[in-house]
Amino acid sequence: MIAVDANGADSGVATVAEGARRSGVPVILFGPAAELDGPSAMIDLVDAPVAIGNHEEPARAVRAKPEASIVQAAKAVAERRAGGLVSAGATGATLTASLFHIKRLRGVHRPAIAALVPVPGHPTLLLDGGANVEVRPEHLVQFAHMGAAFMEAVHGVRRPRVGLLSVGEEAKKGTPDVVEAHERLAAGQLNFIGNIEGRDLTAGVADVIVTDGFTGNVAIKVMEGTAEMLARVSAAAVRGSPLSALGGLLIRGRLGDLRRDLDPDTTGGAILLGLRGVVVIAHGGAGSDGIANAIRLARRAVDEHMVERTAAALELSGALRSAPAASFAPAHD
């Protein structure tokens, strides 16, 4: 069972409800009952009309609005009534409600937003995508281990290649924190390939790309904008003349595959790593297919025991901060 926050998506609660229906996954849908069709065989409905918007300070709003849909959905995961959470609402509210109620894995400094970047034919995970604007070397090391564990557990990538985003390939390039993180990762057990540069983000040279949340968020937004621009330019070029239109017909299938690869709806959303439960942050502008894919991603993470495997990988690596053995809430259907 996946808890789904119906409020906050740009396209409205009906789109979220349709995505829940299309997912084929049992869900608890938290949203305004007056705007929804009601429960069904796969959907339990909880009337939760109160939303937390992007304009509100997340911590204050989460404390002041226990009846908000995102807060109730996070509590459902914390109380093991659901195995995971999906929301296309305000990222700050989702992160804060998750920290307050689902909580971090013991020994994890900070959770990280892990997003699959649009690399056609090659899943590449970038983290942090915006949860932590400033980080220390130990945070980057933990991000690397969490990202590698996710790619192994959910995407079946054996010994994921981990790269550290910097301004040069040399080990001493970058800020002091990046240089220190490089030293620690190079001395560890991950399949660490060293520093990578911005031009390598979409080259498929790494399976996991590690950076701070400020840089990561900017990089993701640049790639999304570039993908949208390429789609527009390609479509305009195909319509430019009768000859190009004929050529477009010949490559229509390939262009369609490329558009699907670059479409944020295809990946569904970013996963919040380092928590005791599965949390997926869907794109705010997601359509019903994007919501459906976000729910499927959450279910796959639950089924593959992503939280437990992440906790075990962190403990084995010695990357946890000083704390008792890692703990987590077991996944539930």
Concise overview:
Helices cover 44% and strands 16% of the residues. With 333 residues, the protein is an alpha/beta fold.
What secondary-structure arrangement, pairings included, does this model have?
Elements: E1 2-5, H1 13-23, E2 27-31, E3 43-47, H2 58-64, H3 69-78, E4 84-87, H4 91-102, E5 112-117, E6 124-127, H5 137-155, E7 161-165, H6 176-186, E8 191-196, E9 208-210, H7 213-238, H8 242-250, H9 252-262, H10 264-267, E10 269-273, E11 278-282, H11 288-303, H12 306-317
Helix pairs in contact: 1-11, 2-4, 3-4, 5-6, 5-12
CATH topology of the largest domain: Isopropylmalate Dehydrogenase
CATH class term of the largest domain: Alpha Beta
Q: Strand tally, please?
A: 11
The CATH architecture name of the largest domain reads 3-Layer(aba) Sandwich
CA-to-CA gap between the ends?
Answer: 5 Å
For the residues shown, what is the average pLDDT? 86
Query: What is the tally of helical segments?
Result: 12
- Domain module count: 2
CATH homologous superfamily label of the largest domain:
Isopropylmalate Dehydrogenase
Describe the structure.
The chain has helices at residues 13-23, 58-64, 69-78, 91-102, 137-155, 176-186, 213-238, 242-250, 252-262, 264-267, 288-303, 306-317, and strands at residues 2-5, 27-31, 43-47, 84-87, 112-117, 124-127, 161-165, 191-196, 208-210, 269-273, 278-282. It is an alpha/beta fold and 333 residues long. An eleven-stranded mixed β-sheet has the order 3-2-1-4-11-10-5-6-9-7-8, with helices on both faces. Helix 6 (176-186) links the parallel strand 7 and strand 8 (191-196). The longest helix has 26 residues, at 213-238. Mean pLDDT is 86; it is low at 323-333.
